[in-house]
């Protein structure tokens, strides 16, 4: 097999394994992503706590109120954009991660923790550019608190955004820098920690113990990445979501949004939605990495790419 043919087959396997990992993760973990977005869009205002039936005091309270006022299927509001985006998004992330590793070896014969971290940063920024329009539509849908049968379709929301604000920084690419910062930082920690620690923790011959090892490292990677990048996630939700005063842009830039939230609501507000985010991306991160590893190894054995 020629070098070109081998590289193409490896790329195809990386795309297939990454796409599979993304699809499985989003189908399982989407409800927690929605809860996280609701918390991040909710301003800290004590006067609303008793007056607004849609004010959420915790994860359980949020889920109860969503079920009561919006119906069971409301937990999957805005899932179509991630489904449409996650397969190519994760495919691009894992593919570009493998390619970026080649550029960050810095003369070493084997990848170092710095290699994994910088490759993760590059992969995260690359996927953010691809996925940002889907994120704008998803956040718009997730912020809608109407009963699920009254929520407009994904396509109608997309058309409305394009018609009113276009494709640029006020439309489908709103909040791009915040998405790049969020995804870049998360994947820098996520890939850097997972691949570095996985190399130090001995593998188990028992398949069940080996599965548990990968799950534990993947879970920790997702939790750490979530804790580090959450302020940028809050900024992204505020920029892409509905503004407090219709027609008036309050949250415009990433740094500006973080500064506003900090000044008006305090430091803790920058970590809004952290618990549902961790509950989603902890196990979600583990699911993605484990599914990727197993699918990639299956394809590698099936097609015998050497």
Automatic annotation (TrEMBL):
<keyword id="KW-0677">Repeat</keyword>
<protein>
    <recommendedName>
        <fullName>Mitochondrial 2-oxodicarboxylate carrier</fullName>
    </recommendedName>
</protein>
<feature type="repeat" description="Solcar">
    <location>
        <begin position="9"/>
        <end position="103"/>
    </location>
</feature>
<keyword id="KW-0472">Membrane</keyword>
<dbReference type="InterPro" id="IPR023395">
    <property type="entry name" value="MCP_dom_sf"/>
</dbReference>
<feature type="repeat" description="Solcar">
    <location>
        <begin position="209"/>
        <end position="298"/>
    </location>
</feature>
<feature type="repeat" description="Solcar">
    <location>
        <begin position="111"/>
        <end position="200"/>
    </location>
</feature>
<keyword id="KW-0813">Transport</keyword>
<dbReference type="GO" id="GO:0005743">
    <property type="term" value="C:mitochondrial inner membrane"/>
</dbReference>
<keyword id="KW-0812">Transmembrane</keyword>
<keyword id="KW-1133">Transmembrane helix</keyword>
<dbReference type="InterPro" id="IPR051752">
    <property type="entry name" value="Mito_2-oxodicarb_carrier"/>
</dbReference>
<keyword id="KW-0999">Mitochondrion inner membrane</keyword>
<comment type="function">
    <text>Transports dicarboxylates across the inner membranes of mitochondria by a counter-exchange mechanism. Can transport 2-oxoadipate (2-oxohexanedioate), 2-oxoglutarate, adipate (hexanedioate), glutarate, and to a lesser extent, pimelate (heptanedioate), 2-oxopimelate (2-oxoheptanedioate), 2-aminoadipate (2-aminohexanedioate), oxaloacetate, and citrate.</text>
</comment>
<dbReference type="InterPro" id="IPR018108">
    <property type="entry name" value="MCP_transmembrane"/>
</dbReference>
<dbReference type="Pfam" id="PF00153">
    <property type="entry name" value="Mito_carr"/>
</dbReference>
<keyword id="KW-0496">Mitochondrion</keyword>
<comment type="similarity">
    <text>Belongs to the mitochondrial carrier (TC 2.A.29) family.</text>
</comment>
């Amino acid at each position: 097999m020629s070098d070109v043919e081998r590289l193409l087959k490896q790329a195809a396997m990386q795309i297939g394994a990454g796409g599979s990992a993304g699809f499985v993760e989003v189908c399982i973990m989407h409800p927690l992503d929605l809860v996280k977005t609701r918390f991040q869009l909710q301003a800290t205002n004590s006067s609303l706590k008793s007056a607004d039936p849609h004010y959420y005091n915790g994860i359980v309270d949020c889920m109860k109120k969503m079920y009561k006022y919006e119906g069971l299927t409301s937990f999957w509001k805005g899932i179509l954009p991630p489904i449409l985006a996650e397969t190519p998004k994760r495919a691009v992330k894992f593919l570009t991660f493998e390619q970026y590793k080649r550029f960050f070896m810095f003369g070493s014969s084997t990848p170092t923790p710095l290699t994994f971290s910088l490759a993760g940063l590059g992969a995260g920024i690359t996927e953010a550019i691809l996925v940002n329009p889907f994120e704008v539509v998803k956040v718009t849908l997730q912020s809608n608190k109407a009963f699920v049968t009254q929520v407009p379709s994904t396509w109608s929301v997309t058309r409305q955004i394009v018609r009113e604000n276009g494709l640029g920084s006020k439309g489908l690419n709103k909040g791009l820098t915040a998405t790049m910062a969020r995804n870049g930082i998360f994947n820098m920690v996520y890939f850097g920690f997972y691949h570095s620690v996985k190399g130090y923790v001995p593998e188990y011959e028992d398949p069940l113990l080996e599965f548990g090892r990968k799950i534990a490292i993947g879970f920790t990677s997702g939790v750490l990445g979530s804790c580090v990048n959450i302020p940028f996630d809050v900024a992204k939700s505020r920029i892409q979501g509905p503004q407090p005063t219709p027609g008036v842009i309050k949250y415009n830039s990433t740094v500006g949004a973080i500064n506003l939230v900090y000044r008006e609501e305090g430091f803790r507000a920058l970590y809004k939605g952290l618990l549902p985010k961790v509950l989603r991306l902890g196990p979600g991160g583990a699911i993605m990495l484990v599914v990727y590893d197993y699918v990639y190894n299956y394809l590698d054995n099936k097609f015998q790419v050497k």
